[in-house]
Amino acid sequence: MFKNLRVASAALLLAAPLMAHAASFDCAKAGTPSEKAVCASPKVSALDGKLGDAFRTALKNHPDKADALKLDQRHWLASRDDTAWTYISGGLGKELVDLMAGQYERRIAFLAGLDAGKPKAPLAVVSDALPKLPSGSRDILNDLKAQGAPIVLAKEVEMKDISALPYQPDAALKKALAGLDDNLTDRVLAGSPFSSAYSMGGTAHCLSEAPYRIDGKKAVAIDGPPVWGDDCMTNHLVAKLGDDYAAVNVDTGDADQQSIEASRWAGKGFGPAEDLILRFDHALKLDGAACAPKQSPCDEFGTVAMTYVAKYDRNPQGGTLDRALKGSEKTAYDAAVARAKAPGGIAAKGDAPTLPDFGSDNLAAGSMTGYDVEATLFPLTFRGETLVGYIGHGHVGWRANDDWMVSAWRLKDGKLEPVASAYVNVVRGSLLLSAPVPAPPPESH
User: Fold this and answer.
1) 275-298 b/e with 16+ CB inside 10 Å = b?
2) What is the pTM for the complete model shown?
């Protein structure tokens, strides 16, 4: 799935020739959509072989991290499968090759980064503090600051217009500020030799920056740091990390991963980008379940749904939850699936339902509840009846989250009617691993 995955640049391609490797598994026995996608591309197949080598090397070099490495590799493979299935389901197979290659390159770079130890300044301060990071942290820098790490973050100050800037901007900065949207925000950090005003626009919350150097009472326009582009769904920060002032970029991350990039201030400009990747465990937590008729209590379905989600979360792609059916059970299920895929059905192309809530105010409140193309049909048994199960992530438009939604449907009088629904949160857990990696180029849109 998308989850802010950044495709690595060509600079991340590793030294050995790709074609010297084959996939880490027998492509003649490839059975899942993601395995077939790997084997269909010589480039990705070679990278899969390289990843196998990198993983074995990591286990050999870091025996103390063996359990964390094995668990994290399972999480990474599940994310790869999820992404592949989403693109395949959406008819984006051509784009998938480059995306998967980027995923593999970044994963190989991460495993290699374990040998590098802690990152260079300014992120060494963050790395040193990670043993104190609370489990489940989503606000890494503020949480480490609360634990006593030497981290200071700039305050965000809204400005009505350019005149509210506390410095006299030079001509270049005036022009840059005039090019931003009306909703301006300045960053204020005492003692910092630089800052930036920005605006945010679009449904993707894309950031446009006007960085500047502070020279007494003047503000002089400067080139932006290498960790900032016209990024969307990320968080740009001005920070003091230890003794260094730095520009920082924190992606929104997902349950399993968070990226923190930083460029330290080096006099009149910024140093090179440094990137620290954090990898986490995650857990599944039932948010709630509901059944027909309206607002009927349904703890029983919550238990059933969690069983299916636990299996699907480890291998999120079509076929994972399939099982052999026979006789009348198979006939009834096949008829229900055909109706689901027919025009107007729950799995029809270009038309997807929202998670049925049966009038409940407590099911997935405030969450994304629209199914999308990657949602998968499967045979679901509930109260002794085989129903059509539907499992997928929550979506709103192009946005997706990590959570899982499950609903059950019955074919009755030629129509599918919802029987039960459950919403399952994917909750970030404890930190498993961290490693410095080559920073990707900033994104532009």
Assistant:
1) bbbbbbbbeeeebbbbbbeeeeeb
2) 0.91
Beta bridge partners of 5: none
Pairing of strands 194-201, 206-215: antiparallel
Rounded Cα gap, residues 3 and 402, in angstroms: 8
Residue 277 forms beta bridges with which residues? 259, 435
Residues in the chain: 445
H-assigned helices in 166-275: 171-178
User: Which pLDDT belongs to residue 350?
Assistant: 77
**Which run of H or of E encompasses 355?**
none
Surface-to-core class of residue 11, CB atoms within 10 Å of its CB (0-12 exposed, 13-18 middle, 19+ buried): exposed
Alpha-carbon gap, residue 72 to 74, rounded angstroms: 5
Q: What is the DSSP string of 64-106?
A: GGHHHHHHHHHHHHHHHHHHHHHHHHTT-HHHHHHHHHHHHHH
**Residue pLDDT, tens place only, 57-104:** 999 999 999 999 999 999 999 999 999 999 999 998 889 999 999 999
pLDDT per residue over 203-249, tens digit each?
A: 667 899 999 999 999 999 999 999 998 778 889 999 999 999 999 99
Look at residues 147, 131, 236 and name the one whose alpha carbon lies nearest to residue 186.
236
370 DSSP assignment: B
CB 394 within 8 A of CB 403: yes
Residues 6 or more apart whose CB falls under 8 angstroms from that of 413 comprise: none
Nearest to 122 by CA among 192, 170, 65: 192
CB atoms within 10 A of CB 433: 20
Helix or strand run (H / E) with residue 316: none
